[in-house]
Amino acid sequence: MMKQGLPASSSSLLLLLFLFLCFSYAIAFIPPHIHLNHLSQGRYLTNQELWFNQTLDHFSPYDHRQFRQRYYEFLDNFRIPDGPIFLVIGGEGTCNGISNNYIAVLAKKFGAAVVSLEHRYYGASTPFDTLSSENLKYLSSKQALFDLAVFRKYYQDSLNAKLNRTGGENPWFFFGGSYAGALSAWFRLKFPHLTCGSLASSAVVRAIQDFTEFDQQIGESAGAECKAALQETTQLIETKLATDGKALRAIFNADDLEVDGDFLYYLADAAVIAFQYGNPDKLCNPLVDAKKAGEDLVGVYAKYVKEYYVGTFGVNVQIYDQEYLKRTAIDEDSSSRLWWFQVCTEVAYFQVAPSNDSIRSSKVDTKYHLDLCKNVFGDGVFPDVDATNLYYGGTKIAGSKIIFTNGSQDPWRHASKQTSSTDMPSYLITCNNCGHCTDLSGCPQSPSNIEGNEKNCSSPDAVHKVRQKVQDDMDLWLSECIDTGRSYI
Ligand SMILES: *[C@@H]1O[C@H](CO)[C@@H](O)[C@H](O)[C@H]1NC(C)=O
Ligand SMILES: *[C@@H]1O[C@H](CO)[C@@H](O)[C@H](O)[C@H]1NC(C)=O
Ligand SMILES: *[C@@H]1O[C@H](CO)[C@@H](O)[C@H](O)[C@H]1NC(C)=O
Ligand SMILES: *[C@@H]1O[C@H](CO)[C@@H](O)[C@H](O)[C@H]1NC(C)=O
Ligand SMILES: CC(=O)N[C@H]1CO[C@H](CO)[C@@H](O)[C@@H]1O
Predict the structure, then answer these.
(1) Is residue 120 part of a domain?
(2) Which atom of ligand 1 is found nearest the CA of 68?
(3) Using 50, 70 and 90 to split pLDDT, how confident is the model at 314?
(4) Does 280 lie in the same domain as 320?
(5) Catalytic annotation on 336?
(6) Which of 90, 259, 400, 424 has its CA 20 to 30 A from that of 297?
(7) CA 20 to CA 335: how far, in whole Å?
(8) Considering 384, 408, 427, which residue would you say is the last residue of a domain?
């Protein structure tokens, strides 16, 4: 049965947890919705939801089913009638509005309208009333890109109608961070006639089966001392898990994570979050101090995990439980199942332990991930990363007018584009709390920084410089397509 969309207030918990971004920052098994929870309250340009009818399957000429897809618009800065339109792409999480981040600053500067489309299946844009594996078959980046194209046409047409004109074309520019950053790059690649350019922030454009660089980057970001403390902690945890797993799980409030891999994954992610979102000191300071003082590293790590990962970020430990991921009901935790499905079918990014010198447990390996895919979604579900990279080009993406940005401490940057060219500039923001999507949110990446204020970055200048370059690129590309509203170049 097709579903007409959940009521917006289906869950107050959802509102508390998912307040932040449409291009969700999280990815991986740092599930999309954990970041930034309560901090983000009231940080929207708008949360007034709008709806339109989207095609369910863009690739079948016989299937004309539709579903309701949610979007938002913010017109306060719009230079009527010919200002640009900024489309903020929804990623792997609920989209509760248009965030007041650096894109808001750009919108003021360029006199732009801002619209944002929730990603199919996530949040209220859910085509079916259950998330069975069978129902998930229309969940893919390819369908999502086509959604954006169809939405762009719909929105341009309705704007034209509002402005009493026909055939008008405003210059469009697309934005996204993380997975949505990859969509932003891929959109410009596949639909170059529909956008003047794209900003692809921390864009994970390379599908990777065994993503060992991820763990290596954590080691690099941590520095020698903290890395050693983290590695020792992992060893102690592995030993305890073998001898008294029940007691160990209890220390971490993770009694339900009976599969060792699930438990160890949870503990690995908890460390990642500190680096990914620009708060390395929250983890490294207490751990290094404890090591120097000869204190119990596992106890200190457990305190960090519970207070910071579970407390501040609001992660629900259950989402690491494969049994829990099997649930097909739609609720505030559905994003985890949905994102795992995308991972298990298209992009992988399996954050496995490198064979040498890893921080995470070596039990978090390829087999763990493949077993999870099969266990949660059924036989035959595994990611064909070669096909994905064949389709989009990976880091050899043959696009143009795409800006890539990365944060130096972000483990995800190794799935992003490595090299820079005039047509596809790539900028690295370097500082010791520069993480995922720093260009859009400032650092530490917390929505308490309205308009992505860069003040809290350890090198605000590094962020500022990259933002200036982004503006210059946008200025040029928008001017090049202002006459036609299109760019085929
Ligand atoms: C979407 O489809 C429904 C049901 O077919 C229809 O009632 C509604 O008017 C449509 N909405 C728009 C915005 O076209
Ligand atoms: C569009 O036309 C309608 C009817 O002619 C008029 O009421 C409205 O003010 C016009 N809108 C704009 C933006 O010109
Ligand atoms: C393993 O890692 C250590 C520390 O980084 C390094 O010194 C050593 O050469 C590595 N060994 C192999 C086999 O790569
Ligand atoms: C940002 O810096 C201000 C002081 O400059 C501080 O009060 C605030 O807590 C910081 N925010 C974060 C998220 O660290
Ligand atoms: C993987 C990585 O670090 N990506 C790149 C981000 O952008 C800078 C600037 O072009 C590159 O030097 C990095 O290699």
Answers:
(1) yes
(2) 1
(3) confident
(4) yes
(5) no
(6) 259
(7) 14
(8) 384
Residue 436: active-site member = yes
Q: How many CB atoms lie within 10 A of CB 82?
A: 14
Kindly report the protein residue whose alpha carbon is nearest to atom 11 of ligand 4.
456
Q: Give the Cα separation of 416 and 405 in Å (integer).
A: 9
CA Rg, the chain, in Å? Answer: 22
Residue 135 has pLDDT above 60, yes or no: yes
In a domain, 239, yes or no: yes
Q: Quick check: CB of 356 below 6 Å from ligand 3?
A: yes
Ligand 2 atom, smallest distance to 164 CA: 1
CA torsion, ordered 431, 432, 438, 444, to nearest 10 deg: -140
Give the chain's domain count.
2
Judge whether 2 lies within some domain.
no
Active site residue 289: no
Pocket of ligand 4 (CB under 6 A): 444, 446, 448, 455-456
* pLDDT (0 to 100) of residue 439: 87
The Å distance, Cα 210 to ligand 3 centre, comes to 19
Query: Where residue 448 falls among pLDDT bands split at 50, 70, 90?
Result: low
**Nearest-angstrom CA–CA distance, 18 and 20:** 6
Say if residue 336 is in the same domain as residue 426: no
Q: Is residue 298 part of a domain?
A: yes
Q: What percent of the chain has pLDDT over 70?
A: 89
**Which of 218, 238, 237 shows the shortest CA–CA distance to 284?**
218
Catalytic residue among 24, 178, 441, 446: 178
Q: What is the pLDDT of residue 483?
A: 57
Candidates 436, 439, 446, 487; catalytic one:
436
Structure tokens at 162: 């509002």
Residue with the nearest Cα to atom 7 of ligand 4?
A: 456
Cβ–ligand 5 distance for 206 under 6 Å, the answer no
Q: For 39-57, write each residue's pLDDT tens digit.
A: 344 489 999 999 999 999 9
Mean pLDDT across the chain: 89
**In this structure, which ligand is nearest to the CA of 213?**
5
Residue 3 above 80 pLDDT? no
d(CA 338, CA 315): 16
* Residue of 412, 419, 470 to test ligand 5 pocket, by largest number of atoms within 8 Å of CB: 419
pLDDT of residue 13: 23
Domain final residue pick, 322, 350, 384: 384
Are residues 371 and 352 in contact, defined by beta-carbon separation less than 8 angstroms? no
Q: 3: CA distance to ligand 1 center in Å?
A: 13
Closest listed ligand to the CA of 449: 4
Residues 94 and 182 grouped into a single domain: yes
Q: Which residue CA neighbors atom 14 of ligand 5 most closely? A: 418
Q: What is the band of 418 on the pLDDT scale with cuts at 50, 70, 90?
A: low
* 405: containing domain: 8-205+397-484
> Are both 295 and 180 inside the same structural domain?
no
User: Could you give the CA distance from residue 204 to residue 327 in angstroms, rounded to a whole number?
Assistant: 27
